[in-house]
Design brief:
Elements: H1 4-23, E1 37-42, H2 45-53, E2 61-68, E3 71-77, E4 91-95, H3 96-99, E5 105-113, H4 119-132, E6 135-136, E7 147-148, H5 150-161, E8 171-173, E9 180-182, H6 185-189, E10 194-199
Helix pairs in contact: 4-5
């Protein structure tokens, strides 16, 4: 029994180190390009709801890579990740490491169009929407671009650049309160024009 406390201490330290390493996962070795799409499988209830609705989908959220101040970052829009001074859910920019923090993502991936001629223009449109401070669309209406949800955002900025990255794929839900037509993550990354660059 005298060694029991010692082994418990070793176990706690090992778990703490493991968690810290997971939090500090680095993505600096990935050769990102503007217009790359980042996907993640989230860890919360909203992510589970998306995956339940997106039949066969493996990711619940997406954003677009932009270059700002000579650094690759990700522009995306999601509910529940407000800054301290924000009263509404809105578009945001953050580091790729923050986007994929272990408390937000259990899995992630980078997808890129095989012909990436639209990526730079799409990234610029994303930065323009960031400057406007577009709010999150809690009604999930594709025909209203004054507010957006995550897949609508990446689809919209690419459409503005001249490319429909959903290839007109849509998902229809017939459930109370959320019946409608949506673009889910799998409507985008499952298209053969995309190549998987990286995943974890």
């Amino acid at each position: 029994m005298k060694y029991f406390g010692f082994f418990v201490l070793i176990f706690v330290v090992a778990v703490s180190v493991s968690c810290k390493q997971k939090q500090e996962r680095s993505f600096e070795n990935i050769a990102f390009q503007e217009g790359d799409l980042l996907f993640r499988k989230g860890t919360g209830l909203r992510s589970r709801a998306v995956l339940h609705s997106d039949t066969g989908g493996i990711y619940s959220h997406t954003g677009i890579v932009v270059q700002k101040d000579s650094v690759f970052q990700v522009v995306h829009i999601t509910p529940g990740e407000r800054e301290d001074n924000e009263r509404e859910d809105k578009i945001k920019i953050e580091t790729i490491s923050d986007f994929w923090k272990s408390n937000k993502a259990s899995h992630g991936a980078v997808y890129r169009l095989k012909d990436n001629v639209w990526g730079g223009a799409a990234a610029q449109h994303a930065l323009r929407l960031l400057q406007k401070g577009i709010l999150f669309d809690h009604d999930y209406q594709l025909d209203d671009t004054t507010k957006m949800y995550c897949t609508e955002l990446v689809w919209y900025v690419y459409a503005q650049a001249g490319k429909d990255i959903s290839f007109e794929k849509r998902s229809v839900l017939n459930v109370p309160l959320y019946a409608g037509t949506y673009i889910f993550p799998s409507n985008i990354y499952s298209n053969s024009d995309f190549v998987l660059v990286y995943n974890f």
